[in-house]
Write the structure tokens for this entry.
Amino acid sequence: MKRAAFLDRDGTVIEEVGYLNRLDRVAFFPWTVDAIRVLNQAGLLVVIVTNQAGVARGYFDEALVRETHELMDRRLRAGGARIDAYYYCPHHPDGVVEALRQTCECRKPRLGMIHQAARDLDIDVAGSFVVGDRWLDVDMGRAAGARTVLVRTGYGLEEEARPPGSGTADAVADNLMDAAAWILRGLEARGPGLRT
């Protein structure tokens, strides 16, 4: 089985802009391409897991989500990096698009996206990592048995100031590059199945 770095998208890999409803609003952090390339070179699958409730809310459609990921792929490839798979949840219980107005199993912090990726890509989730800028990312990772990193980009600084009662992340990092460095140190020092 393979190990993976499950990455949140908005606020972690790309800048947080609220509901991303136009391609011209996609902006990588300065370290994004390098951080993902480091994870690729470490032999980890890199998998995006992202809530996209804007689809259910009618702010944009699923075509824009796919186009965003295609744009990200082009920019990453130009820098020698890659995302191995994208998973997104278009649902929300308060959505205006009737078919997407539901309480689903894929919306973080539920585990639907991680479980689907594990099946599709033969991932050992317990030997994997979840990185995001919100506690719901951390909660999802902890529930799945993965190691977790909260990054201070996006909503991360605000989230760090309000820790949940459910437990904290295995690490808090300034950004995705620092999270990647923490992941690599853990792999080298402790092996893939042990917490650092």
Q: What stands out?
A: The beta strands are 4-7, 45-51, 85-89, 129-132, 147-151, 171-173. The first strand starts at residue 4 and ends at 7. The domain at 6-188 is CATH 3.40.50.1000 (Rossmann fold). Residues 62-78 form the longest helix (17 residues).
